[in-house]
Amino acid sequence: MTNNNNQIAPLQLGAIVPANLKGPLILVLAAVCIGLAPIGLRFSTMEPTITAVWRFVFAVPVLVVAAFIFKQPIGRPNKALIAAGVFFSLDMCFWHLALVRTSVANATFFVNLGSVAVGLAAWLVLKQRPSISWPVAALLATAGAAAMAFGASEDSASDLTGDSLALIAAACITGYLLFATIARSSVSGFQAIFWITISAIPVGLIFALILGEEIFPHHYSDFAAPLFLAFFAQALGQGLLVYGVGLTTPSIGGVILLIQPVIAGLIAWPLFGEELALIQMAGAALILFGVWLAGKGK
To answer: I want to staple 88 with a disulfide (CB 3.0 to 4.6 A). Which of 98, 155, 176, 289 is the partner?
Structure first.
């Protein structure tokens, strides 16, 4: 999917890479940045949902400063942007709950099933039929992600409750990506990520209050993890993602986002001792091959 708003994106890559590779490349970069999210959450001393809320809050001034630097208009939100923000916030809330109840690889795998499902949703709702090679690419990448999750050693902290929460988050991320794609047909990527972030704050705050989580930390140093997430995972990672979905089809974008469990798993290995078994390494290779095949079929 392309539109006239792509020309005002923060990153002007047109002169560096071919136009047909611009969208996939941006989504790869987005997946790498978002893959840092479970790592940042593991280091958070705050409860999971309120960590997500502060992530959104701290991302707003970052985006405002970026708007000033890159001279990007913020504009006004539309219904699709608000819906995308609501689904995104619910995705983050359920996913953050899952991450502290199961392994990094499991939580990232299950939630990213929603990324693949958006290809089918776009086909049904937006009539954007995927390429002939997409089903094979999606199956290979999903099989690879499954190998990374279920190939974990018995010492990994997997849990049925955490896995179930991650599946709920997957349904939410399908809605998020679908509405973000719809919104990108009429607004710029920068405007989209700003209003999606704003819309996510009240939903996450209500969720945190229902769960009885403390809103404010005991020490200012507790803000370190949310600040890290705000910059890398939200402003940069989700910003690139929202921009990228306007440059390629949801089916291809969803497969590319499955790079996230590869990044998360590789980083979690030395940090948390969640060692990748041989089958998980093979799964990572399958994901990368599936991503390549999806891009080739564009």
So the answer is: 176
